[in-house]
């Protein structure tokens, strides 16, 4: 098989060379230039340098496949832009700083979500993908956070509190934040932009952190906090009603006792000395 027999599945890719061995396919590809500055947005025409990026892709007939991608660095000539040099992005092929292609990441995530870490590692190894169980779980936690829930976490009772984040789809703990600040919550959500629904209590810091870190997510109150708030409201109302009934009953008893004393004073018989002779 030669490079002319292989057709790239992504638009904008051009295969330059293809080398096949018993253990690995190595495919050298180049991408169409996309020199757009990620900060200011204009298209650059000044090349800085180029580098090779190694991206594992889906296996071919059980044989590991490695994409050797040649990408360029560009200079941003716009005055006032803090990013002097930037690397071109390929959002259709892979994510920023990613070590695998989108297709391979999706396969790893689906396997890890269904059967777990170690079992997925064994299955993927039979398919020609060598990954550890920890890597599979890390991929699952990175990509499947569609609905998250945050609650207080006690590091040291009465002294230090943090925040525990739970994935509501897998019902597993995602991360433990060192504090309960709005900035810490916002920073974590910005690093995991896939959150669509955030369940939280009604604390103002959590609401602010969710608005700053994931403005696209929908904030809801989970069932636990709704039931607890309902219980506290009913307890306050019942307690106030009991206090009012208690005050009404004591006032009624005091009125009855005073009326009874007056009645006794009126109906009591006069002594013999009180009658006129």
Shape: elongated
Fraction in helix: 25-40%
Cα distance spanning the termini: 144 Å
Beta-strand residue fraction = 25-35%
How large is the count of helical segments? 6
| Major sheet | 5 strands, mixed
Using only C-alpha atoms, the radius of gyration works out to 35 Å
- Low-confidence region ranges: 271-277
Structural class: alpha/beta
Number of strands: 10
- The helix/strand series, from N terminus to C terminus, equals EEEEEHHHEEEHEHEH
Mean pLDDT reading: 77
Structure description:
It is a single chain. With 277 residues, the protein is an alpha/beta fold. The protein has three domains: 1-93, no CATH class; 100-144; 147-224. It contains six helices and ten strands. It has helices at residues 102-115, 117-127, 133-143, 182-191, 204-213, 223-267; strands at residues 13-20, 24-31, 46-60, 63-75, 85-87, 147-156, 160-167, 172-177, 197-200, 218-221. The strands form two sheets. Strands 1, 2, 3, 4 and 5 form a five-stranded mixed sheet that branches. The protein is elongated. The model is unreliable at 271-277 (pLDDT under 50).
